[in-house]
Amino acid sequence: MSFLDFLFRKKEKSFLGVDIGSSSLKVVQLRKERGQAVLETYGELALGPYSGSEVGQATNLSAEQITETLKDLLREAKVTTKNCGVSIPFARSLLSLVVLPYRKDPAEQKTVIELEARKYIPMPISEVQLDWFIMPRAEQVQLAEKESIHDASQDGGNIEVLLVAVHNDELSFLQKVISGAGLAASFYEIEIFSTIRAVVEEQVKPVMVLDVGAASTKTYVIEHGVVALSHSIGTGSQDITRAISVSNNVSIAMAEALKKKEGLGGAGAFGGPEFVFSRIFSEARRVLVQYETVNKKSVTSIILTGGGGVTKELGAYAKKTFSIDVRVANPFLKTEAPAFMRSILEEIGPEFAVAVGIALRKLAEAR
């Protein structure tokens, strides 16, 4: 082995999580050392300026524009690896939890799922990449009791299956961006699963994740590590910025800066953010109650994440709204980093949940 080969092999210990959002790109590079995930570098670059709009606003850029932005980010963050995983936006995917016939033979079960999936996916199966996850067996027993169906351990019973579909065009778009930026992706993952890996510790009891993005807010209930319910709210952090802009008669750029600096802690100066978050929380509470009513189970806690979740004092405000435990996500707790960086990482953590979750999966695959 040559000296250069040795250097190359060492670099392979580092892996990159790439989060392509509607308002920004984020990357997190981790390496595994003594069984621990070590933070090497991270970075974020707003897409707004590349589309002629302001920082924090959702965009609709071409693959070529995003590619150039990603190249800039990789350079600014001093990323040293090409090995990565990539997020797929929740809005560009389809998740559906369905009850399907159970078959003991895996091959037959696969056939049943693929045939039944056609009923739930509003486009030809040939146009999407289809995947699924069968809910844990304990849940199937409860389902059998609830619906008075056959024992799920025998043919003829029913099981709950999480169907996941992504349009081929979306995957082609992302693949074009990644290859154009000189990266090599081993997987593409819907952002919801990356977030779960990074911020959800509870493995059994139901937990709600409230992911405040730029254009929308995603709410999902996680149970047994699986998405039991997902819902999108058409209000996001860009609406909060606009509310600050209007109530303070300042530009969008200034409003975005105020949001980051003051957050809800400055609500006395501008009430716009509280009004928008009130709408988001009201809809999230409706989803929570719906889940608890239908499933006869209590959601034990709420985790706030996403770019909008960085707003200061949001956690305290949410605790006044919900009657259960609320915390702001800090995915960097799952990584080793210098002590002096901890306060910064805690503050920006919610924004990087997806990128951290993807990088953690890459590390797990590299065993």
Automatic annotation (TrEMBL):
One Pfam family from the record: PilM_2
CDD domains in alphabetical order: ASKHA_NBD_PilM
Highest taxon listed in the record's lineage: Bacteria
Listed name of the protein: SHS2 domain-containing protein
Native species: Candidatus Kaiserbacteria bacterium CG08_land_8_20_14_0_20_50_21
